Amino acid sequence: MAQKYDVAGLGNAIVDVIAATDDEFLLTHNVAKGVMTLIDEYRAHQLLGALPDGREIAGGSAANTMAGLASLGGTGLFVGKVNADRLGESFADSLKQIGVQFDTRMAEGGPQTACCLIAVTPDGQRSMNTYLGACRELTPEDIDEDAIAASAVLYIEGYLWDEPSAKAAIERAMAAAKRAGRKVAFTLSDPFCVERWRSEFRELLDTRLDILFANEAEAKALFEVDSFDEVLQAMRPWKGIAALTRSEKGCVVARGSEVHVLDAAPVAKVVDTTGAGDQYAAGFLYGLTRDKPLAACGKLGALAAAEVISHYGARPEVHLKTLAAEAGLI
Question: What is the largest CA-CA distance in the chain?
């Protein structure tokens, strides 16, 4: 099948609702400051009605990566579950406005669309209340095998592995990608996610994955080691591409004995690290789908990550294609 998309991303579909508030708002509505709290649907409705002039953006890790890919000029398809409600329509519109294809059938009834309600106080603290809702309802029937087969890379958000139906959807998507001779990329998402599914993630690495994204803590958790050097030794026999991020230490990109140690891209001030890993993956995959050398892919990832940590929010605010061109990377 002819290629239509650079990347098909599978992930949790979450609408980020961001609003400027103050400490009095947090106290009035009993919002824990500076942390992420999981909430139920009733609480989500309460806070959604209370947040002043919230800005709604399609969020979730893989959706953020697709946004970064589009900012670089790449073509992306996002697969994730929303409800046919107002926030679900907002999610779909937000992706379509930036050129990311989103065709997943919306749920009729059941849990409402997932949302992350983010109150930003004048001191820059982000207090997040997350309702997971419909994003946990992804099923194998939501996978368009032809669309997956038409994507150069299938990119999977590790968080999805927590739900049995979503896991089955991932299995179907991976099978479609492999039949079409496409690459399968996986991001470990979170050290706690790795702790829950270590043996299954290790099996995926050995049998079906071509590209692995992880930060240093996630990689150590995967291999149950204490040092980054031990991570590299554990990765060496693997035939795939490992893109490992180390915050201010930069990143390491490895494929067997080929290892590239790359500096972090400069940033005037780190404002908010939310989405850094998501944007790193966007830059890396953009380079990979254009047959860039691995070192160049890592540099593109670092550039995208640096842009997003320079401001609040998990999506680029400056066109990454422009920044990449200025840096001589494209």
Answer: 56
Backbone angles phi, psi at 320, to 5 degrees: -65, -30
What crossing angle do the helices spanning 294-308 and 61-71 adopt, rounded to 10°? 110
pLDDT bucket at 22, cuts 50 / 70 / 90: very high
Q: Which residues contact 98 (CB under 8 A, 6 or more apart)?
A: 67, 70, 71
Q: What's the confidence (pLDDT) of residue 123?
A: 84
- Residue 223 CA to residue 30 CA, distance in Å, equals 39
Cα-only R_g, the chain:
19
Encoded amino acid at 232, one letter: L
- The pLDDT mean for the chain works out to 94
- In the chain, the domains with their CATH numbers are 5-11+60-110+135-326 (3.40.1190.20)
- The answer to whether 310 and 264 have CB atoms below 8 angstroms apart is no
Structure tokens at 126: 């982000």
| 55-59 β-sheet, strand order | 36-38, 126-131, 114-120, 14-20, 55-59
Task: Report pLDDT for 44.
Answer: 94
Which pLDDT band, with edges at 50, 70 and 90, does 55 fall under? confident
Predicted TM-score (pTM) of the model is 0.93
Average pLDDT over residues 97-114: 95
Alpha-carbon gap, residue 66 to 77, rounded angstroms: 7
Q: The tokens 């239509």 sit on which residue?
A: 4
Give CA–CA dist 275/277, Å, rounded: 6
pLDDT, mean of residues 101-124: 92
Please report, for residues 2, 59, 106, 260, 319, the alpha-carbon distance to residue 82 in angstroms, rounded to integers and kept in the order given: 28, 12, 5, 39, 27
**In Å, how far are 61, 164, 177, 213, 324 from 168, measured between CA atoms?**
19, 6, 14, 21, 37
